[in-house]
Structure prediction request, 331 residues.
Amino acid sequence: MIRRAFPYALVALAACLGSFGLPTAADTQQPASPRRIGVVLVGWSPESNEAQQFRQGLRDARYSEGRDVVIEWRSANGDYNRVPELVTDLVQSKVDVIVVDGAVTAQVAKRSTSTIPIVMAFVGDPVGSGLVTNLPRPGANVTGLSLMTVELSTKRLQLLQDTIPRLTRVAVLQNQDNPNHTKVVEDLKAAAPSLSIKLKFVSARTPEEFGPAFSAVNQAHAQALFVIDDPVFLTHRIMLVKLASKLRLPAIYAQKDFTHEGGLMSYGANFGDLFRRSAWYVDKILKGAKPGDLPVEQPTRFEFVVNLRTAKALGLTIPQSVLLQADDVIR
Prediction:
C-alpha cells in the first residue's frame, strides 16, 4: 500500500510546487506595450520648465515613462510652417493621443485626424477658433484647457494704464496667422475708448517682420507696447524685448518669460500649471474616456510680474498700487 501511494504523493507534491515555482502561460506573457503620447510644441521647448510639468503631471497620475508611456516630443521652434509636418508624422505613427500648445497646432491636428484624441495644453479661444462646440461638452476628439486670452487682454491694457497714468497711445503687436488674435483685437478696440486710449495695430508673422513692425510702432509715437500672446513671439522673446528696449517702450506681455528677459511687465496664466493639468486629460483618455465628454477647463493660477530694473532703465516709477498686485517683482 505504501509503495502504491508514494508515486501519487509525488505527483501531488509536484503539482503544488509547480503552482508556485514553475512558469505558467500567464507568467511568460510580455508586459503591455507603453502607450504613446505625441506632444507638438511651437512656443515652448521640450526642455523648458513649463513643458516638463507635463511629465510631472503624468508622474502624479502614477505613470512611469518608458514602462507605461512614451512621450514623442516634436518642436516647431516658433515656426508655424513646420506644424503640419510634425502633426502628420505623429498621426501616421498612430500615437494614442496628441497634446498641443496653441490654436494653430490644434486646428492642424483636428484637420489631420478625427480618431486620435487631441488635448489642448492651452488654447486662447477654443470655441471661437472652431475647435470645440462649447466648453462643458466639447464634442468630437478635442478637449483640454482654455487660455482665456480674450478675457485677460483687457486686464493687461488696464495694467498698462495703471502703470502709466497719462497713457493715451498704445501699439499692439499681433500675429495674423493666429486665429485667436482676431477676437482679441476686437475686444481691445471695444475696451480702449473707455480708457481714453488710442490703439495702433501692427502685425508680424515671423522674426523677419519684427523690424518693420517696430518701425511702424515708432512712427505712430506709441507710449507703450501690448504684445498679444503667441507661440512665435514667445520663441523669439529676446528679440522682441530688445526691440522694445531700443525704442524705450514700456511693454506688457502674457508670459513671465518676457519679463525675466528684460520686459517691463507680464500678466497671464501659469503655463506650467496648464501643462501639468493637461496630463490629467491624457490620463482620463488612456483609461477610456472620450475627449468630447471631458469639459474644457480654464486657468486657475495667474501671475503678474514686474521688472523694476527695466522700469529704472526706462525712467519709469511703478505706482505702489501696481506693485502691491504683483506676484513677483524683479529688483
